[in-house]
Amino acid sequence: LDLEASILATGKNAGELELVFRAEKQNNRKVLLLMDVGGSMDEHVHACEQLFSAVHKSSHFKQLKSFYFHNSPYEFLFENMQRVEKIATQEILQSVDASWTLIIVGDAAMHPAELLEKGGSIDYYHQNPEPGLIWLQRLHQRLPVSAWLNPLPKNFWSHYSCQLIRKVFPNMFPLSLDGIQDMVKTIA
Questions:
Q1: Radius of gyration (Cα) for the chain, nearest Å?
Q2: Of 15, 63, 135, 164, which has the maximum CB count within 10 A?
């Protein structure tokens, strides 16, 4: 019901009630959500579970794809939090375009080698052929409308790996209600 239009129409109709309806707004936002799980993220499980639950129950997005990683995305992302079922990151990149919004959730806390060196990943037994920062740059290039939600308070964002990530993803926000509101205003 369009209340304002109904009041105007009723006034023009000599006070006889005239209801005006409008189509419900449809959200055209397509979101690729990547979430860091394991390691230092374990202590943020509760906050992340609340976000994950709300996102997955939400019908606010035209499309939503969510995947998991540990510390940094590499050539594979995972379809579940246990990081068992994997999918090629390149395949995901090919399935989205610049009309998608990228949101990454993670504390950005890792050894800098994971971001800067081939073989720096602790999860790939030091066999990742490309540094994590390369994959983050590819993600950001493909999906320039992007943000990073960090569960750590801002005063913990000075560590080197976080600074490296913020060069690629300058839109980093705290994983809090205020942080999410600021993120939405920034990337809307």
A1: 21
A2: 135
Q: What is the full DSSP assignment across 79-126? A: SSTTS-SEEEHHHHHHT--TTEEEEEE----S-THHHHSTT--TTTTT
SS3 57: helix
Helical pair 132-142 and 160-168, crossing angle rounded to 10 deg: 30
Alpha carbon 133 to its chain's center: 17
Residue given tokens 């068992």 in the structure block: 84
What's the Cα-to-Cα distance from 48 to each of 21, 44, 57, 67, 106, rounded to whole Å? 38, 6, 14, 13, 9
**pLDDT 10s digits, 141-162:** 999 999 999 998 899 899 999 9
